[in-house]
Each structure stands twice: as structure tokens, then as C-alpha cells.
Input
Amino acid sequence: MSIESVRAFFAEKAPEITVIESETSSATVPLAAEAYGVEPGRIAKTLSLRIGDRVVLIVASGTARMDNKKVKAAFGGKPKMLGLEEVADITGHEVGGVCPFGLKSPLPVYCDVSLKAFDVVVPAAGSTHSAVRIAPQRMAELTSAEWVDVCQAPVTA
Output
């Protein structure tokens, strides 16, 4: 169901964007980077968090690490990752395919500034074998996301 809801989202809001599918799993940042031939930083991971009594999605660069202090300062509460079943129930997407598109019900979406380092990023598209290529700014526009700075400074390897 999930990849179909993402396809429907793009058909309605951005028909020029096509969902791409991979033969191999793209459920983790390293797998997705390999599957779509990009550096891990370009993978836009979506974190499903409960902060107090609300659920939010934060989309960040695949190599960025969430900074709990920054999240607490930005959202006024301690973040807690949603459990596996909760993620699917709330977003309509399975873990490994969670994205800010085609959600089961509207959720607040935030894009971390770590995404701004890239002209194009590759977020999942509702399944562990699908994604889209999209400019971070366009993703923020399509999902009505707010920009936040909630990750640690990038570590250069």
C-alpha cells in the first residue's frame, strides 16, 4: 500500500518526479547508497519521533546524527524513536521505507539543514526497495516542511 500512496502523492503534487525501484533492499543508509549509486550523505533518512504527545518526522542527511539537545531545544521535549509497529501504523510506511510523502495521515515534517549540502537527495518512497531523487528545497516545499538544525555537526571522514 505504501509505495502506491507515495506514487499517488507525486502524481498529484509533482508528476515530474518518478518513484524509482531497486532490485536490492535500500532499507538502511549504506544499502540505499549502494542501490542508488550515491554517497551515503545524499540518502535522506526520515526519523519518526514522539516528542511529548506529538509525533513528528525529521528528514536528515544519511550521515547526520541527531543531536538530542538540539531536538529538545527546537521542540521543547525529549525525542523518542517510534517502535516498529507504531511507525507503520502512524505513517503507513514500513521501517526502511519511511518518507514524508504519501502519509497515512498528516504529520508535521521537518527538514534538517544537513540536507542543504546537496543539490539532490534520495529519500525512500514508501518501501524498502523504492526512492525518489529530489532537490531538498523541493522536498520541503512539497511536504510543507520547516527547516531545523537538529543534527550534530557533520564529521568529515
The chain has five helices and eight strands. The CA atoms of residues 25 and 59 lie 20 Å apart. The radius of gyration is 14 Å. The longest strand covers residues 43-51.
